[in-house]
Amino acid sequence: MQHKFTKGCKAQKSTPFPRILFLTLTIYDMRNSKYVFASAWLVLLLILFMPQHRAFAQSGEGEGPPSAAYDRILKLHPLQIGEVYFSYEKMRTERISNEFGLSYVYQGYLKSDDFLPDAVKVGGVHIRMSQRYYTSKKYDNVPFGFFHGPMFGYRFMAFEEGAFDSPFESPSDPSGRRVGRLYQNSLELSYQLGGQFKLGQHFTWEVSAALGARLKYALAKNADELLPEHIIGHTLASEPNSAIFIVPAPQLNVSVGYAF
Fold first, then answer.
1. What secondary structure letter does DSSP report for 167?
2. How far apart are CA 214 and CA 233, in angstroms?
3. Is residue 23 within 8 Å of 75, Cβ to Cβ?
4. Is 232 exposed, middle or buried (0-12, 13-18, 19+ CB in 10 A)?
5. Which of 231, 229, 234 is nearest to 213 (CA)?
6. Residues near 188 by Cβ (< 8 Å), separated by ≥ 6?
């Protein structure tokens, strides 16, 4: 006679990851950007080492359920220079998905006399939106395999005071010319190619590259010639307080994510 406990035993279901993972980065001082970057790496480590709760049904006919299909991925992009970048991707049709990305920008770049540009502290936000077409016939209704598609972005940055490193930025300048704080708005349009694959039951990794152009609008009161001298890109138009630039925008993207 079978024991009542074993007779009434039911398969346990694995505890699903919450459908929406809310992450908050508290920034007490925008100048202390190293704490923001360290927080992003801490979140990455927590995601990678989070235990997965797995339980398999026991029956006389088979062992374990088939692997589930996930159509959403929450991602962290740890190699994005100068930004703390998170994104969310969701399938819309069998082969097409949309991705929305949001990042906090803590570092910008200006021209320098050396080969590498000068890094400058900034505070800003970067928004990205993309559509992906997955070409692999192995997967349907899941965002895995090779993909390609357009990507659009908008970025706003407020540079720290004195970013130009010019005497005109000093209140004690004898010429009486006072250069204001530098602000920059950018629009970018790119086309990306890449692949996204599973690391386990839930974790994913992605590698992709994109090529496009970025249009910049820089604004600083009385900056005049300082804008073309310091802003990276080809000058399309320049005025005493503002200037417009265009620059190629190659991108390399690496991300790790959680599929659900």
1. G
2. 9
3. no
4. middle
5. 234
6. 151, 152, 153, 154, 155, 212, 213, 214, 215, 249
For the stretch 48-90, pLDDT in tens is 444 443 333 333 333 333 345 788 999 999 999 999 999 999 9
Q: Which residues pair with 101 in a beta bridge?
A: 87, 128
∠ CA 180-183-185, rounded to 5°? 155
The residues, ordered by sequence, that sit 6+ positions from 74 with a Cβ below 8 Å of its Cβ are: 21, 86, 87, 88, 257, 258, 260
Find the angle CA(100)-CA(131)-CA(127) to the nearest 5 degrees: 30
Q: Look-up: residue for tokens 């009161």?
A: 221
**What pLDDT is stored for residue 12 in this prediction?**
42
Identify the three-state secondary structure at position 50. Answer: coil
* Separation of alpha carbons 164 and 51, rounded Å: 48
CATH of 25-48+70-259, one of 3.90.1010.10, 2.30.30.60, 3.40.30.10, 2.40.160.20: 2.40.160.20
Question: Residue 131 is encoded by which pair of tokens?
Answer: 């559509």
Q: Which residue has the tokens 């993909």?
A: 147
What is the residue extent of each domain of the chain? 25-48+70-259
pTM of the shown model: 0.70
d(C-alpha 146, C-alpha 95), whole Å: 11
